[in-house]
Amino acid sequence: MQTILVASSRRYSGKTGVCSALIGVLESRGLSVGYMKPYGGMPVDSSGVSTDRDAHFINQHLASPSPEELVTPIVRSRSFVEDLLAGHPVPGPDEVKAAFDAISVGRDVMVVEAPSDLEQGASAGVCLADLIALLSGRVLLIETADINDPPDRVVRACALLKESLAGVIFNRVEAADLDAVLEHYLPFLSGRGIRTFGALPHDPLLSSVTVGEMVDALGGTVLCGADRRDAAVESFMVGAMGQEKALKFFRRRANKAVVTGVDRADVQMAALETSTSALVLTGSSSPSPTVVARADELGVCTIIVDTDTLTAVETLETIFGHVRLHGPGKADRMRRMFTESVAVDDLLRACGLSI
Q1: Which stretch of 48-52, 163-167, 239-243 has the lowest confidence by average pLDDT?
Q2: Of 110, 192, 214, 223, whose CB is crowded by the most CB atoms within 10 A?
Q3: CATH homologous superfamily of 2-203+324-350
Q4: CA gap 209, 280 in Å, rounded
Q5: pTM
Q6: Can you point out the beta strands (E) in the chain?
C-alpha cells in the first residue's frame, strides 16, 4: 500500500479539491482508495459523530467509505483547544495511527489530507512533519503563486521536506498569471531539483458559496429572494463609496454579494444594476422599500444583519477563499481540471505507483 500526503505551506491552497480529484483518478484506474484528514478544522456533527465538514464530504463519495469516526480522529473544536491547553487528555498521534491502520486495511492507496500549513497540529503532535514520521507517506505539495515574488515559501518548504517530497502542484492560478507560472516558476523549481507536475487554473465556481450558506453564517434575516438559497456567490464586495464610483466598482465582478450599510440605498441600487447574487445590509435601521422591491423584482436575495459592516465582512471571510466541493458538479469539474492540467502519470510514479 502507498500513502500520499497532500500538504501545503499555507492555508487556502486547495488541498481538499486536489484530494478529491486525485481519489477520482485513482479509483478510475481500479484502485481501492482510502481517505483521512487526521486534523480537521471545520467541525460538523454527522449522525452524532464529530468530524470535519470537507472530510465528511469526501469520505461519503468514496467507492468504499470508511467509518465516520475514523476519518478525522482529531477535530479542532473549541472544547478540543480548551482541553489541550488545560493539559487534559485529547486525541493525538496514537489515535491518528490507530485510525489510519484501520482505514488502510485492504486499500491500495491512502490519500491523507495534511493540516492547513506546515505548523498546524504541532501542539497535538500531528503537524506535517509528525505525520510523515507516523504514516511514512510521500508528500504532494499544493501551492499558490504570486508572480510578483520568487517562490521563496515553496523552496523553503521543499528543503524541509527533503526526500519525503514527491513534488509540487500549483493551484488556483489566475488566468493572467498562468503562462508566467508555467514558463518561469516551474522551470525555476526544476532547476533547483524540485519536481513539478503542473498548474491548475483558478475557477471562481469552485470557491463559490451558496446564498443559503451565507445566510446561515451571518445569522441574518432574508427580506426577499428566499427561494434563491442555492444560487452561487463567487465573491463579495464592500460598498462604501458614492453611487457613481460604486457602479464602476461593482461591474468588475459577476455573481457576487455586496455588503453595505442598510442606510446606503444609493450603493444598493448601484449593486442591483450589476451581476449581483445577494445584498447584505448591515445595521439596525430599516432598509429602503424601493431597494427591497427592486431586489425582489430581479431575484436578488436581500439579507439584513444586526451587525456592523466590518463584522459581517469578517464572517464572510471565513467561508470564502477555499475550494468548496459541496455544490452540484463541483467535484467532477475539479477532476476534469486536474486531469487536463497535471502530469498525472509522472505524479503517480513519484508517489510510488506504477499504473
Answers
A1: 239-243
A2: 214
A3: P-loop containing nucleotide triphosphate hydrolases (3.40.50.300)
A4: 14
A5: 0.80
A6: 2-7, 33-36, 39-40, 43-46, 49-52, 74-75, 109-113, 138-143, 165-173, 196-201, 209-210, 221-224, 232-233, 235-238, 256-261, 276-282, 301-305
